[in-house]
């Protein structure tokens, strides 16, 4: 199993920030489209693309969080049941 290093954490953080900035740019583009009176189909197509991007960002954040928690055991080398339950709950809530 790959060690979840500080380098990996930093790379994931940068990837998430870059994706968020891309989404921000897409939202500005949609605002411009609406302002210019572009067709509903074009606007909705862009909104669907943003929705998909945001979902992918959420998955990245959950994966990072889950890996950090799973690879950060207590002094006995075990992951606390409460922490694991919390991670599972978050994943289930996100997938609804």
Structure report:
The structure is a single chain. The chain is built from three helices and no strands. It has 96 residues and is mainly alpha-helical. The longest helix is centred in the middle third of the chain and has 31 residues, at 40-70. The radius of gyration is 18 Å and the shape is elongated. The mean pLDDT is 84.
Descriptive keywords:
96 residues, mainly alpha, Methane Monooxygenase Hydroxylase, Chain G, domain 1, 3 helices, 0% strand, DNA-binding transcriptional regulator, FrmR family, Metal_Tscrpt_repr
CATH topology (level 3) name = Methane Monooxygenase Hydroxylase, Chain G, domain 1
Distance between the termini: 29 Å
Overall body shape? elongated
Q: Give the second-level CATH assignment, the architecture.
A: Up-down Bundle
Query: What is the rounded Rg?
Result: 18 Å
- Averaged pLDDT: 84
Organism: Acidaminobacter hydrogenoformans DSM 2784
Pfam family, one: Trns_repr_metal
GO molecular function, one term: DNA binding
Protein name: DNA-binding transcriptional regulator, FrmR family
Characterize this entry briefly.
The protein contains three helices and no strands. With 96 residues, it is an all-alpha fold. The model has no long low-confidence stretch (mean pLDDT 84).
Reconstruct the topology from this structure.
Layout: H1 6-35, H2 40-70, H3 81-94
